[in-house]
Amino acid sequence: MTLPTLDQLRAFDAVARNGGLTAAARELGRTTPAVSYAVGQVEQLSGIKLFDRERRRLAITAEGRLLLAEARKVLRAADRFGSVCSRVAEGWEAELRVVLDGIVPQGPILNALHRFGLLGAPTRVQILVGFLGDVQTRFEREHCDLMLALDLENDGSLRVADLPPIEMVLLAHRKHPLHARPQPPSWADLREFVELVVVQPEQLARRPSDPLFHGSDQVFQLPDFIAKREALLRGIGYGWLPRHLAEGEMARRRLVPVEFEEGSTHALHPRLAWRVESVGKALEQVRELLSDELSQS
Fold first, then answer.
1. Cα–Cα distances in Å, from 187 out to 192, 198, 213?
2. Structural contact between residues 121 and 281, judged by C-beta atoms closer than 8 angstroms
3. Span 130-140, mean pLDDT?
4. Within 10 Å of residue 48's Cβ, how many Cβ atoms?
5. What is the tens place of the pLDDT at every residue in 209-245?
6. Among positive and negative, which fits the CA dihedral 108, 109, 111, 112?
7. Domains of the chain
């Protein structure tokens, strides 16, 4: 079966909306005979009578109404295709892969994505999550376009933008033995208890001096900071949480800062990074929106 052309379907749609050939021709900027011929072609190719021509105003038939609904789906898809072609030609990427450190607050990330969606860009955005050094590993291994990382090595191949710091708080359940000590605990004291972490085992091994790792004899590795917060609430151990995830439980006094002798807070410094040679409107927009939202949080 030979299918009608988009031009013929547009004529069919215009006549149905305007209720007549003359008004449809005026809207389309074509002659009335040309519009009439186009509609006739749709009828001939489909084998279906689309309009009742015995009335002064063309009335669409029941069968015609069914075909019209499908024709409009085709026209919307064609318009979308044309829009995507134009925007890709203007420099919008087909896909953008972003890897984030899971410690970063999710609200600003979602706000940035929402604002990007409102732009109507033809870009599919994929968000991946890692922690500390794993972020850059995934950025390189999975050919991502943008990363938001804490632990970043730059050999000159990356452009980097600093973001506001994230405050970490050393916490334990209010009934944890660490809170019963007469003096603020030392590193040696902390090593006596279960330490909760969200890192890969190899990172613990090669970063013994990191202020967020204390080298406890018992280390429980958890998949993310939500699980870590739950473990802290159950009194399983102690560990660092970003303040934005801890504030509610701290206000309820369910989680209490550990009065560590070297301080119970620590600032982490997230940065956005992308390849020097990377260009594209989606990358530029997402980067700017993430920076803006995280700066306001």
1. 9, 19, 10
2. yes
3. 86
4. 13
5. 566 677 788 889 898 899 999 999 999 999 999 999 9
6. positive
7. 6-89 (1.10.10.10), 95-164+269-296 (3.40.190.10), 166-268 (3.40.190.290)
User: In the prediction, which pLDDT does 172 show?
Assistant: 95
Length of the chain: 297
Residues whose CB is less than 8 angstroms from the CB of residue 112 and which lie 6 or more positions away in sequence, other chains included: 286, 289, 290, 292, 293, 294
CA distances from 220 to 120, 172, 189, 217, 257 (A): 44, 14, 17, 10, 19
pLDDT tens, position by position, 143-168: 999 999 987 888 889 999 999 999 99
Inform me whether the pLDDT recorded for 290 exceeds 70.
yes
Structure tokens belonging to residue 222: 């958890």
Determine the 3-state secondary structure of 67 from DSSP: helix
Residue 54 has pLDDT above 90, yes or no: no
Neighbouring CB atoms inside 10 A of 78's CB total 13
Q: Using CA atoms, how far apart are residues 104 and 269, in angstroms rounded to an integer?
A: 10
Q: Answer positive or negative: Cα dihedral of 217, 220, 225, 230.
A: negative
